[in-house]
Amino acid sequence: MPKQEFDVLIVGSGHSGGMAAQVLTQKGISCLMLDAGPEVNLATNRVSKNPWELPYRGMNKPGRLPHVVQANEFNANQWVDEKEIPYTHDPASPYNWVRVRMLGGRSLFWGRQSFRMSDWEFKSLDKEGVGDNWPISHADLDPFYSKVEGIFRVSGRKEGKAHFPDGNFLDADYGPDSTTVKKITEIAQGRGYLVSKIRASNGRNGQASSVNLLLPEAMATGKLQIVPNAIVRELTVDKNTGKVNGANFLDRHSKQELHVKARVVVLAAGSLESVRLLMNSGLANSSGMLGRYIIDQLYGVQVVASVPEARGGSAAEGLMGGTALLPRFRNLQKGEKNNFSKGYGMMIASGGAAQPGFFADYGESLQKKLDFHSGACMTASIYGERLPRFENHVRINKLVKDAWGIPVLHAEVKDSANEHNMAKDAADTAEDMLKAAGWDILSKTDKFHPPGYSIHEVGGARMGDDPKKSVLNKWNQSHDVKNLFQVDGGCFVTCGWQNTTLTMMALAMRSAEYLAEQMKTGVI
Amino acid sequence: MQAIAAAPAVPALVTPALVTQQNMQAQTAPARPAGPLASGKRDAVGEPVARFFSATQLAALHRLCELLMPPMGGNPGAIEAGVPEFLDFHVGQSPADRQQMYRSGLELLNSRSAAKFGKAFAALDATQADAIIRPLLVLVPWQFELPKEPGARFMAAAHDDIRVATRNSREWTQAAIAAGRRPVGAQLYFFPVDPVYKG
């Protein structure tokens, strides 16, 4: 019996796929969503436990998730099993690909920081001579950012700065700044740096995921079917037209292969997973750019200082607590000279604890030091922007296959002097500011995690006006295959210092509205 | 529920005699407790059996645990928390490089102790042991990168493991509760997700 042909097949159910589904179904377009993982009820799938109740005392099964630094024994089951779905890299160039396979994807677990990108990122080449420009600007994305901010109930403080664009914010009650936050704010402002506050998605009922904010709206239209445990092996193509006409997918449990028909395919499986699917399908790569320019953000640099007046539990009320966010402040001024391009944001948190490694000591003597500095620490950490580079890429490794027989990715992504110089500048700058406040440095490091760690991997199918230099056009539409879209982070041309999710959702919404219009007018 | 209600009855398979017997059992059997039947905890009933380290390595690890994490502030120390035996298990389950780091590190403690004091690390008093431990302790400003020098690398890793395993122990939680302090460390545990059918 011939099966239904859907208007649109959406692969992936996270923030991007959920946004595409919501927009398209609300415009009357029938959608099928395939997700590689099961539907999980977070309310019943989690239970509070003490570490000693777990087999490994909370210290995790050794070697279980070598690339997921964020994993511990409590959350290990939420991440993709690296043995089941491996990827490869040169041991000398580690890449941390952190994945989730369940309905809602990583939207179930994200940190909710919600910053817009600015034209310092969208027009990087024009403004700084670095990388390439996106084919769109902040002005193009502004109305979509506003709508997404409304859906996700983003709170924030408006600053009126072009490099840190304001949005459609709920009023945020940050409370009064502590004395230490006021002090570091004065020092940073004295150097000409903007000091702001975290902007975050509040969501609803404790969640800000695709599963509670996007997919229910789409389901309510009656136009969306969601099939879990459906692992897409490859997209299929009409040989007469060259257009995609559906996909072959495998049942996660039985591995039975099935084919589904659709007029349009929208990929939203995550930047690298979508690229892997395109590569395994032999599609959308006439430019040779598919899999190129893999980027993410640089995390790990940290400087910790101790506030003398707060040591030994002596902090007066209002001295400690709260945070200061310094949006990117480097290389924004013409003529500014640094030994690196682009920049980094910085978070300074008041009231933390020292770590044992800060002292070459042990036993009671160490514990006294830890107790002495407990609650008295100021911790500076950064969100650094890595540069997009052609040579940083992923490709198919045909020698290795996942549990469903699908060839895996090989990642070849390396840092350069730019990242190392940026990290050193960030550590030096943080140390300098903390010292200027009269606080004692306990620890300083300019080390940082390997690429991928931030879980903000983007690029690999970058957008552009020139089909010879880009995979997607400014509408997230394949240059090569007009009824094929990729609406996750694959389209990013630069990654910025900002958390990427808000921008991904705004782009997905914009692309889906365009697609709906094209389908309505019969262009697609 | 609907499936059960719709299932066809099979009265012919249940003889009157069996029904009577079952009813009698039901009347005489004690009521099932409200909670789970299997509520015992492994750590509460069993002593861990060390299998991985040699006797001299394990003795050195015991002494190291005593010194690095003694009982403090009403909390149990690493020995009371069974950390040496736990680490014997945990390291024994680990990739080869971690196993080698531990074995070499414990042997290093013993060889330096023998060279300096003519006895094993486990037999050193606190002052003597301090002379072995101190040179191996270095600052670790970034917890994600251990020192490169093998001895310092072992000491940093073991120190961290001993502290975490102690604080994460059942004994630590019990001491906190007994002292009226809020136990730390409880988190939401994520159950395995609909595992792939292996056949």
Please explain how this structure is put together.
The complex is a heterodimer of chains A (524) and B (199). With 524 residues, chain A is α/β, with parallel strands linked by helices. Chain A is built from 11 helices and 19 strands. Chain A has a single domain, classed as FAD/NAD(P)-binding domain, CATH 3.50.50.60. In chain A, the strands form 4 sheets. In chain A, strands 1, 2, 7, 8, 9, 10 and 19 form a 7-stranded mixed β-sheet that branches. The longest helix of chain A has 20 residues. Chain A is globular, with a radius of gyration of 24 Å. With 199 residues, chain B is mainly alpha-helical. Chain B has a domain of 128 residues. The radius of gyration of chain B is 26 Å and the shape is globular. The N terminus of chain B is likely disordered. Chains A and B meet through strand 3, helix 9 and strand 18 of A and helix 5, helix 8, helix 9 and strand 1 of B. Strand 3 of chain A pairs antiparallel with strand 1 of chain B.
Condensed summary:
Chain A is an alpha/beta fold and 524 residues long.
Distance between the termini of chain A: 27 Å
Radius of gyration of chain B: 26 Å
Mean pLDDT of chain A: 96
In total, the number of domains of chain A comes to 1
* Helical amount of chain B: 40-55%
- Percent strand of chain A equals 15-25%
Oligomer: heterodimer
Figure out the total of helices of chain A.
11
According to CATH, what is the class of chain A?
Answer: Alpha Beta
Question: Which series of helices and strands of chain A comes N to C?
Answer: EHEEEHHHEHEHHEEEEHEEEEHEEEHEEH
Order of helices and strands of chain B: HHHHHHHHHE
Number of helices of chain B: 9
What keywords describe this structure?
heterodimer; A: 524 residues; alpha/beta; FAD/NAD(P)-binding domain; seven-stranded mixed sheet; six-stranded antiparallel sheet; 11 helices; globular; B: 199 residues; mainly alpha; 9 helices
